[in-house]
């Protein structure tokens, strides 16, 4: 008679959680070897552990919805502003406010906030550990930009996937308006697991939709992606729809990465810190923006991975954000129609009805 119960406890280490090969082996063990070794009609698996990142098998099991899940953090919430009166612990007789605060303060002092949030709060990332916290994310009303397209210079950044399988990356297109104050306004975006030809059709549609002052389209040209440039150029000639392909080399068209993925994203972090990147309120609940925020909130400043940006399952939209620093943007010189140059060389606003204009100066 086959056994009916299997208990799995901490079967993966922090280092193992970073290895796709080890992760695949563990998943095969759990879902093939262990599951199929139990009684077919009456079986139960109890899986205990602490999640390390979004690719961790136990984290994916929790997110899948296929398991009955119980999560027991040490308390409901804790950060630098949490007071003793606000503290709600899971086991306050064992893990008091003083203990949790001591662990939190130690993690902060050592520059390892992820240790506290991962081990005690069962969170993959925390607000303190995030490279781009919510306070650095700016929001705006997109209609304001769309009603004044000519006041901005426009750019498109892309990240095209080379396969369409279930575990494949997304193909991503992000549309940006660049303002006179050197602000980046995300205006539109799309992501999906499709053939390259389908992604290319979507790119041309976006280029036609936002053709006013479209100064550059960024396409990465590393590895097998070098061929994308010639394919795009052929499609431009065939369909007579043209747009400028950006370059960061000065010779070849396309964007050639000069460093690893995390380093490239780290270069765009100051834009967020200085409140120079704006996201549209209108897209908050759209799949593209939901995925963007998921990826963004998974970027941990403490444990960077050169091969991947953050702990979220995907980082493809973040790749299109990283490309902003490679675009060499030009700020617009647009002026409203009612700005006139006076005889003395000073630019002043020209009001149609002089009777309604009262100067604040004494002439």
Describe the protein's architecture and organization.
With 363 residues, the protein is of the alpha/beta class. The chain is built from ten helices and ten strands. The strands form three sheets. The chain has a six-stranded mixed beta sheet. Strand 9 and strand 10 form a beta hairpin. Helix 8 packs across helix 10.
Low-confidence region ranges: 351-363
Spatial separation of the terminal alpha carbons: 102 Å
What integer value in Å does the Rg equal? Answer: 26 Å
Q: Strand portion, in percent?
A: 5-15%
Shape estimate: globular
Main pleated-sheet profile: 6 strands, mixed
User: What's the rounded overall pLDDT mean?
Assistant: 83
Strand line-up in the sheet with most strands: 3-8-6-5-4-7
Q: Structural class per helix/strand content? A: alpha/beta
* Portion in helices: 25-40%
Question: Number of DSSP helices?
Answer: 10
> Could you tell me the number of beta strands?
10
Order of helices and strands: EHEHHHEHEEEHEHHEHHEE
List strands and helices in order, with pairings.
Blueprint: E1 5-9, H1 20-37, E2 44-48, H2 57-64, H3 97-109, H4 113-119, E3 138-140, H5 142-146, E4 153-159, E5 171-178, E6 184-192, H6 196-209, E7 214-218, H7 227-239, H8 261-273, E8 277-280, H9 287-296, H10 316-322, E9 339-341, E10 347-349
Parallel strand pairs: 1-2, 3-8, 4-7, 6-8
Antiparallel strand pairs: 4-5, 5-6, 9-10
Write a short abstract of this structure.
With 363 residues, the chain is of the alpha/beta class. The chain has helices at 20-37, 57-64, 97-109, 113-119, 142-146, 196-209, 227-239, 261-273, 287-296, 316-322, and strands at residues 5-9, 44-48, 138-140, 153-159, 171-178, 184-192, 214-218, 277-280, 339-341, 347-349.
């Amino acid at each position: 008679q086959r056994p009916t119960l299997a208990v799995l406890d901490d079967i993966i280490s922090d280092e193992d959680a970073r290895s796709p090969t080890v992760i695949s082996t563990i998943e095969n063990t759990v879902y093939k070897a262990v599951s199929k070794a139990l009684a077919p009609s009456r079986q139960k698996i109890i899986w205990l552990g602490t999640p390390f990142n979004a690719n961790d098998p136990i984290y994916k099991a929790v997110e899948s919805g296929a398991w009955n899940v119980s999560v027991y953090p040490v308390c409901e919430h804790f950060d630098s502003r949490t007071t003793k009166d606000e503290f709600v612990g899971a086991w306050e007789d064992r893990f008091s406010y003083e203990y949790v605060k001591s662990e939190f303060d130690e993690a902060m002092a050592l520059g390892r906030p992820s240790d506290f949030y991962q081990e005690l709060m069962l969170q993959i990332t925390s607000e303190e550990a995030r490279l781009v916290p919510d306070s650095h994310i700016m929001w705006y009303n997109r209609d304001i930009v769309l009603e004044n397209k000519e006041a901005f210079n426009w750019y498109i950044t892309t990240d095209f996937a080379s396969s369409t399988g279930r575990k494949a990356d997304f193909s991503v297109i992000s549309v940006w308006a660049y303002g006179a104050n050197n602000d980046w306004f995300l205006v539109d975006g799309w992501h999906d697991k499709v053939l390259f030809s389908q992604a290319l059709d979507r790119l041309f549609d976006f280029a036609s939709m936002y053709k006013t002052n479209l100064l550059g389209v960024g396409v990465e040209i590393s590895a097998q992606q070098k061929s994308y440039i010639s394919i795009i150029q052929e499609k431009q000639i065939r369909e007579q729809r043209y747009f400028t392909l950006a370059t960061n080399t000065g010779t070849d068209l396309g964007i050639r990465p000069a460093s690893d993925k995390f380093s490239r994203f780290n270069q765009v972090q100051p834009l967020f810190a200085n409140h120079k990147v704006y996201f549209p309120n209108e897209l908050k609940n759209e799949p593209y923006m939901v995925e963007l925020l998921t990826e963004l909130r998974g970027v941990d400043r403490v444990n960077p991975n050169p091969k991947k940006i953050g702990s979220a399952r995907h980082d493809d939209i973040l790749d299109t954000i990283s490309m902003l620093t490679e675009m060499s943007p030009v700020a617009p010189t647009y002026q409203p129609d009612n700005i006139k140059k006076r005889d003395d060389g000073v630019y002043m606003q020209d009001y149609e009805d002089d009777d309604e204009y009262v100067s604040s100066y004494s002439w």
